[in-house]
């Protein structure tokens, strides 16, 4: 009996890092669209599949390669063997085959249009099609390819109809001359439910930059290894100067976003509705991760205090999923990546105007993550707890000082909003970790203590 492509994909998709429906059985996987980008052997097929799990349907994008014989170097990305057009073919994850990904670069360089798939080159750029790709091995919600050391190409895995906020934002900020975004080179689009929908974006690869997350961890490690009693500012690798600069850059990005897109205010009744949304999200999270229930009171109290605020709050476009893994330090400044918001949220929500303090809250949470994540397997975890707290407090304070210095607004009653946003992010993280990295679950849970 031959296995159908749908059956092969249903067996394979659950093991992929970017698959959002982990822990639940797949009831059905159907292929919504199938476009041949390149024929022959190897062939490149672009698939949009729809996965049904209970009453939830999620669409994913999967470029697959087809070959009669699979070379050893592609064995690790084999999906299986199936019969297509009367012939047996090996099916595999095409993004690992540079012979196939060359077609994606070529498509963008020439603004090529397939039936149902449109490739675009950003205004005023040339694309060097001689660059070959490698897949980034970072644990990600999407899949990124690096072409040479020149371009980074991100293919969105989960699809929702509409323009991806990331494309919208980097195009606007780069067009306005921002030094805090990587230059866009091109993108791929399709139509989903009658809406132009972004499938992939290609940007400048920041070849000499370091990720904020790894810089922060180096600093935490140094502090853990320093003699007991030595203050954080004297231990090697203090991060506070960078945290402050990151705060300044964050405030500048917020100002640039406020200039490029509409802004507004939310009034107290809307704050009440926001509180209710946070409460509902908390309930859903507790249903999925019952341990969170022990902390429900702390979160609920913070959310209720937000509902009691009696003044309006300024809103604008924001990053939406801001953390140390989304910022890179180049030789000259901090650059912000990945403006697509929280991957699991509907696009309309991710593009909605929001308080810039949502991003501030996200980054404050990330300092907590950096301070605590090395404790999990550390033989002297209890003894280092106070050092983790010291590192986190020092860098959170430096970031906030930089944010104010850069013109960001955190004052008075806004502390109530900031706390509610921090705990709402921690609720999101509890679910995220339970699904993806259960050993990390204690980190967001500690936010409620
Ligand atoms: N322009 C870039 N230059 C260099 N590295 C990048 C660039 N964009 C992303 N990266 C690297 O890829 C990782 C994942 O990128 P990101 O856009 O956050 O993807 P995802 O949406 O899947 O999380 C980043 O943490 C960073 O290490
Ligand atoms: O894949 P994305 O970068 O869009 O974001 C998702 O994955 C992140 C994990 O990589 C997750 O961030 C959480 O872990 C980070 C450390 O790995 C930490 O710095 C963040 O503070 C914490 O939220 C993010 O929430 C998720 O959306």
UniProtKB/TrEMBL annotation:
Q: What pathway annotation does it carry?
A: Glycan biosynthesis; glycogen biosynthesis
| UniProt key word ATP-binding | yes
Name assigned to this protein: Maltokinase
Q: Which InterPro entries match?
A: Kinase-like_dom_sf, Mak_N_cap
One Pfam family assigned to this protein is Mak_N_cap
Q: How does it assemble?
A: Monomer.
Q: Which family does it belong to?
A: Belongs to the aminoglycoside phosphotransferase family.
Question: Maltokinase N-terminal cap domain location, by residue?
Answer: 12-97
Q: Which reaction does it catalyse?
A: D-maltose + ATP = alpha-maltose 1-phosphate + ADP + H(+)
Q: Which UniProt keywords apply?
A: ATP-binding, Carbohydrate metabolism, Glycogen biosynthesis, Glycogen metabolism, Kinase, Nucleotide-binding, Transferase
Look at the named UniProt entry and state the broad enzyme category this protein falls under: transferase
Gene3D superfamilies associated with the record? 3.90.1200.10
